[in-house]
């Protein structure tokens, strides 16, 4: 009996020591985003959105019995698969991250998923990778995205243009997974709705001169030019050439063009042009904007989705009682969807408490996120009209 008591006492002491170690511990989350590259200007708000949720959870003192959370940044470059893969490897092997918020652009996201996340069993939640091809990627239940697929954006683009009475368009897209995936989806949907795509031509980023591309687009004609490109790279440079050469007066922009840099680059030169990017007029979006205040642009493309991606990672860990991806990956869909108490931005401490007590949450978040099959976001979009040199909201879809 005495031996049993001693053994029990030792076990209790060991358990107590383990709890103390856990309380003093730190969970690291990788932010694998394009801090340099063709969407660099968008990363300010995207990164800040994710960091905001991480800070909110860490400071609550309620995460996994008092553990803190630290964000570790790494540069995906958006376009260099080798660099993004190496950065992801460092996050896991050197920094010891337990999950990755990211990547951002579709091509590097697919490369990291296949070459790093899948072999290492690490959960990834991307706030901005939209290629329809990612829906079919092998992921072993590790990959999710809070941004909707480009398959959905192609439909929204078609609806917006058809409602404006646009019957024919020239189409240019950045020559990668994101650009081609969205361009193909849009063309198929637009033509099925009775529209005509006069030309669908890729463009390379980083060129000094886009006059040849603009010449071909202009010769094909169309009511306007649809641009599926990057705001800090070839997309904007091509638009500049089109304006300077008088090739097109109006444009329609896909989500990776919809950033403050577009206003700064062109101002009123784009008046009358249109576009869309993920967004919602839900109560969660308003709460998120109030939470952000003047810290950064809460309405920037994919910023709300980044806050939600970080929140879902951490709430799923709390629901599972573990930061191990193999364990908490099964909780992501549960936390994101009903049933449960609805959770909005600024309420992450409330959600942590509910989960710790064995309850359920339905994370609505800043983007009204709702996961459908395969970890896909159903998706909402903000329709934009450029007026007076500013992106103004027309409606939400």
Strand order of the largest sheet: 7-6-8-9-10-15-16
What is the residue-averaged pLDDT? 93
Q: What's the CATH superfamily of the largest domain, by name?
A: Response regulator
The biggest beta sheet is recorded as: 7 strands, mixed
Estimate what percentage of residues fall within beta strands: 15-25%
Broad shape: globular
What is the CATH architecture assignment of the largest domain?
A: 3-Layer(aba) Sandwich
Number of strands: 16
Number of helices: 14
Q: Rg, please?
A: 23 Å
Overview of the structural elements:
With 397 residues, this protein is an alpha/beta fold. It folds into two domains: 27-148 and 283-341, 3-Layer(aba) Sandwich (Rossmann fold); 151-280 and 380-396, Response regulator (Rossmann fold). The chain contains 14 helices and 16 strands. A seven-stranded mixed β-sheet has the order 7-6-8-9-10-15-16, with helices on both faces.
Strand and helix layout:
Blueprint: H1 2-23, E1 26-33, H2 43-60, E2 68-75, H3 81-93, E3 99-102, H4 106-120, E4 123-126, E5 143-145, H5 150-163, E6 168-174, H6 177-192, E7 196-203, H7 211-220, E8 224-228, H8 234-244, E9 251-253, H9 260-266, E10 274-278, H10 283-292, H11 303-320, H12 325-328, H13 332-336, E11 341-343, H14 348-356, E12 361-363, E13 371-372, E14 376-377, E15 381-387, E16 390-396
Parallel strand pairs: 1-2, 1-3, 3-4, 4-5, 6-7, 6-8, 8-9, 9-10, 11-12
Antiparallel strand pairs: 10-15, 13-14, 15-16
Helix pairs in contact: 2-11, 3-4, 5-6, 11-14
Could you give a quick summary of the protein structure above?
Helix 11 packs parallel to helix 14.
């Amino acid at each position: 009996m005495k031996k049993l008591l001693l053994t029990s006492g030792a076990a209790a002491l060991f358990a107590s020591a383990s709890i103390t170690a856990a309380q003093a511990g730190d969970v690291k989350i990788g932010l694998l985003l394009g801090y340099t590259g063709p969407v660099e200007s968008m990363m300010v708000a995207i990164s800040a959105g994710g960091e905001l949720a991480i800070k909110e959870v860490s400071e609550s003192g309620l995460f996994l019995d008092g553990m803190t959370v630290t964000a570790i940044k790494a540069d995906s470059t958006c376009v260099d698969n080798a660099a993004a893969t190496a950065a992801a490897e460092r996050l896991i092997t050197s920094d010891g991250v337990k999950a990755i918020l990211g990547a951002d652009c579709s091509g590097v996201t697919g490369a990291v998923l296949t070459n790093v996340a899948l072999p290492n069993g690490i959960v990834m939640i991307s706030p901005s990778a939209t290629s329809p091809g990612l829906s079919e990627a092998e992921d072993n239940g590790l990959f999710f995205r809070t941004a909707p697929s480009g398959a959905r954006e192609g439909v929204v683009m078609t609806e917006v243009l058809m409602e404006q009475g646009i019957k024919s368009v020239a189409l240019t897209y950045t020559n990668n997974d994101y650009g081609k995936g969205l361009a193909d989806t849009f063309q198929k949907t637009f033509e099925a709705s009775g529209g005509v795509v006069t030309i669908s031509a890729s463009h390379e980023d980083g060129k000094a001169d886009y006059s040849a591309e603009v010449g071909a687009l202009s010769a094909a004609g169309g009511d306007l030019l649809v641009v599926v490109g990057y705001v800090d790279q070839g997309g904007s440079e091509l638009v500049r050439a089109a304006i300077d050469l008088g090739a097109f007066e109006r444009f329609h922009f896909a989500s990776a063009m919809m950033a403050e840099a577009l206003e700064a680059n062109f101002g009123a030169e784009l008046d009358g042009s249109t576009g869309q990017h993920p967004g919602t007029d839900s109560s969660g979006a308003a709460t998120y904007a109030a939470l952000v205040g003047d810290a950064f642009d809460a309405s920037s493309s994919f910023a709300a989705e980044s806050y939600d991606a970080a929140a879902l990672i951490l709430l799923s860990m709390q629901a599972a009682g573990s930061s191990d991806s193999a364990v908490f990956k099964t909780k992501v869909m549960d936390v994101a969807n009903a049933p449960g108490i609805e959770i909005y931005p600024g309420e992450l401490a409330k959600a942590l408490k509910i989960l710790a007590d064995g309850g359920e949450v339905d994370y609505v978040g800043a983007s009204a996120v709702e996961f459908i099959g395969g970890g896909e976001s159903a998706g909402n979009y903000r329709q934009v009209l450029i007026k007076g040199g500013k992106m103004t909201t027309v409606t939400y879809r």
